[in-house]
Amino acid sequence: GTLGVAVVGAGRMGADHVRRIDRVISGARVAAVADVDGERAKAVADGVAGCTAYTDPAAAIAAPGVDAVLVASPGPAHEAALTEALARGLPVLCEKPLTPDAASALRVVRAEERLGRRLVQVGFMRRYDAEYLRLKALLDGGGLGRALMLHQRHRNASSPPWFTGEMLLADSVVHEMDATRWLLGQEITAVTVMRPRPSGNAPEGLDDPQFVVFETDGGALADVEIYVNCRFGYQVQAEAVCENGTARIGDAHGMLVSTGGRWGGSIAPGFEERFEDAYDRQVRAWVDAALCGEVTGPGCWDGYAAAAVCEAGLRSRAEGRRVEVELVERPALYD
Ligand code: ISE
């Protein structure tokens, strides 16, 4: 069969997912699109055969032919859409963050727990990136010994005008919060956020870059440099330092060109380009699983854990000290 998808949110990510489901992925079709901006919803829906536009997410989720929901609205709108989808027993792919804070993320965890089965996949798409997968397989294989440290760099060419100092953590470093937990198979127990004197490239008042240190329950340390106005392109790098060796990803993508007495390559302009394959693989995996009545990939527990780490990070940034992460006990559903 074909999976009928309601896409909630027709912004940058929502519109891109509509394109992906419509033209890249097989096995699914976009049946409904919702956006608070009706014009925007209509513009996106008009490009897709058999797709209806809505302003109310609940109406799109309840629309005929909808078997699954892709949530790509702003974070504060996620909980309502998730609650609606869970009430209807529909599988969901929810863009990060699951919800903006740990308390609301925990409510979603509890709702899923009450259902007794997983329905939600969270859009931590780096878990589907070929380089990340290779690093994960290497670490899991154990050939390099135990991972001692992770060094991560996350650079965006520029930040959107509404970006705040909190968003460097909640919107950007949230990917490393998940990647660190996933790569190491450990929970993050404490966060320290430090800030150098801001870059002259950063908009007035934005504390960019920031430097974040995670401690984990397995005794590892992970650092993250987040710099969202680096100008030169989009760059995401990770290096694992293990007992018997190191492994690095994100240094070069694709082709190396030599000409005019220089050698070099190019840097992707943004995350859509850098992680294009990862986004495709993520949505394909979600659709394939949903067609078999299954849900795989990062779930509500991962979304909740990232939200809890994020809260600790925001407190650390505000208070200038190390802050411990508070997690409830992990429900058996997520073992
Ligand atoms: C954005 O929301 C993302 O998810 C990107 O992956 C990240 O690089 C960017 O900094 C965020 O704003």
From TrEMBL:
Ranges of residues in domain GFO/IDH/MocA-like oxidoreductase: 132-247
Keywords noted in UniProt: NAD, Oxidoreductase
Domain Gfo/Idh/MocA-like oxidoreductase N-terminal: from-to ranges: 4-124
Top enzyme category: oxidoreductase
EC numbers, comma separated: 1.1.1.18
Tree of life domain: Bacteria
Catalyzed reactions per annotation: myo-inositol + NAD(+) = scyllo-inosose + NADH + H(+)
GO BP annotations listed: inositol catabolic process
GO molecular function, one term: inositol 2-dehydrogenase (NAD+) activity
PANTHER family registered for this protein in UniProt: INOSITOL 2-DEHYDROGENASE, PTHR43593
Family: Belongs to the Gfo/Idh/MocA family.
Quaternary state and interactors: Homotetramer.
HAMAP family the UniProt entry points to: IolG
Purpose of the protein: Involved in the oxidation of myo-inositol (MI) to 2-keto-myo-inositol (2KMI or 2-inosose).
Protein name (record): Inositol 2-dehydrogenase
Gene name, Swiss-Prot/TrEMBL: iolG
